[in-house]
Specification:
40% of the residues lie in helices and 16% in strands. With 665 residues, it is α/β, with parallel strands linked by helices. It folds into 5 domains: 221 residues, Lyase, Ornithine Decarboxylase, Chain A, domain 1, CATH 2.40.37; 103 residues, TIM Barrel (Alpha-Beta Barrel); 137 residues, Alpha-Beta Barrel (TIM Barrel); 79 residues, Methane Monooxygenase Hydroxylase, Chain G, domain 1; 46 residues.
Length: 665
Amino acid sequence: MSTRIRGRSEGLGSMSARRAAVPGPPQDTWSPAIAEKLYGVNSWGKGYFAVNEKGNVEIRPTKDPLRSIDLHEMIVGLSERGLDTPVLLRFTDVLSNSINEIHQAFQLAIEDEEYQNQYSCLYPIKVNQQRAVVEAIRGIGEGLGLGLEAGSKAELLAVLGLTVDQPEMLIVCNGFKDREYVETVILATKLGRNIIPVVEKFSDLELLLEFADKHHVHPQIGVRVKLSSRGAGRWKKSGGARSKFGLFVSELLEAFELLKSRGMEDCFKLLHFHVGSQICDIRAIKNAVTEFAHIYAELRQLGAGLEMIDVGGGLGVDYDGSQSASDSSMNYTVEQYAADVIYRIKSACDDADVPHPMVLSESGRAMVAYGSVLVFDVVDTATYDVSCRVEEVEATLEGESEVPQPLLDLLQAVRDLEQRDVVEVYQDAVAARDELLSLFGLGYASLKVRAAGDRLYWYLASEVLKRMQNMEEIPGPLADLPERLSDVYFCNVSVFQSLPDSWAIDQLFPICPIHRLDEPPTRRGVLADLTCDSDGMIDRFPSMRRGDKQILELHPVERNGPRYYLAAFLVGAYQETLGALHNLFGDTHAVHISVGDDGAQIDDVICGDTVSEVLSYVQINAKELSRSMRRDVERAVRAGRMTPAQAGSLVKFFDSGLDGYTYLV
């Protein structure tokens, strides 16, 4: 049936398949603490997020409850400043805390194992290349020995430019390399930069040696090796023998012999591997590091000048809060990760009697995911609520020459709802509706009959759903009803621009209201964005009962009432970099926030794309559009189709729109 738009929604329940229809206690015992548990804030929030006594979500950038920021109050304040949602909030203190936690975990492991070297984290800028983010991380990591990783020629040039005042900062260069890329690395070495190009293919090494000879440079060289071990989770194919980058062990030995033949074995400073992003199972990390450490140890015994090993990325983020080996989670902690890496490297080195190397990791996702929150508002809702009385339906059928039997069966199912088993009634209704739709398709039922059947079916389904709220176990035939009858909340956001992984790879992101959590959420819905693409939906959410759920608990929304704000959390990694211009929705506003002595303070505001800016990305000139519109308007005035005042208003709206936000305001 066609959904109808409602200003206020109320009444539907929810459930997980074969579980209770409405999670949590009765509404009269509702509290913000129950909301915090329902949405899993205390599970995926990792101490950074909580629900306060007002029923608002707050962020604790340093995990200190006394240094918190109320997200709803922040959004209201931004709106008063003229910055409407959608808006991306970036928290510099969260970045700092995340980076320090990783560093401290490795320091603790080094101390516990009496490891005879140090650790440093590398930030791969591909994870979030926004200048403000990279500069913040560069500043945070200055005292921790943090380095930057570039995965392309463009990223290399960006990193070189951003570290002019920090020439000692380690730069690791991965990715495909052409002659220009390699020569730039060699010249940067001559400039005095602490830079290590990583050989991904044997031809990379040949180019490095060519330009090292040309410019008389004794470079630092890294090599990426393909392990037999593979990762775990969505990106497990990144590792193993079929991985995209790296040298086989046989090629690795060949590369070492080439360097040795030229008296450059001491240039071989770094050994690198990567078995995939978001590794969900700690066993994959243990296996890969063990294999990798033995390769390092034997190369050292052969005379390689290795001083550093880079264990790549892969440190996961617990997006769904389940602390499991699901694709959107991880079954280990940062401390366990660091302990396993250090222990296995130390064991292999001690067995081979070779020095412990400096350990590097590229934990970009874990460094930045928690630092950004995307807040957006709901602009409208659609529901499947139907009111129905049998007598009214029968009255609408007067004049029909013949009422098909399936419609009579639907009428009877509604009458029987109180007397018969609810599952039997619903199954009868489904069968009757299917038969009625077939008759309509063959031309044996009128449109009026079809409409009456739809009304009866949706009414009965909604009544069945209400009864399911009191069931301890949900029968299989009814399991999909909550999803089928869920509301659609239309949101002022583009999934393709701001949450591309949700659309492209079904990544789960925690999403919940940022206010009204002192009220019970009486609606159940899915989220639709502003694009005209049917894929612009979010219908999978983290669940505390299982890996995910198909509906989100929400509050009724009044069309002309106060704005209703939702937020997607843990969006700091990859989402801005991968965003697409579907329907020409551009970047959202971005606001950088920190916690000072006087509370939250706004450090920077980066306004989102205007329509003119987005049009320029697709080679459409806004000024030319404006001139064309003015000419067309003047023709309409001359022809008498518009008054000069109307013409002026249209031109004003057109030009204002070109200079405005791409989202609804």
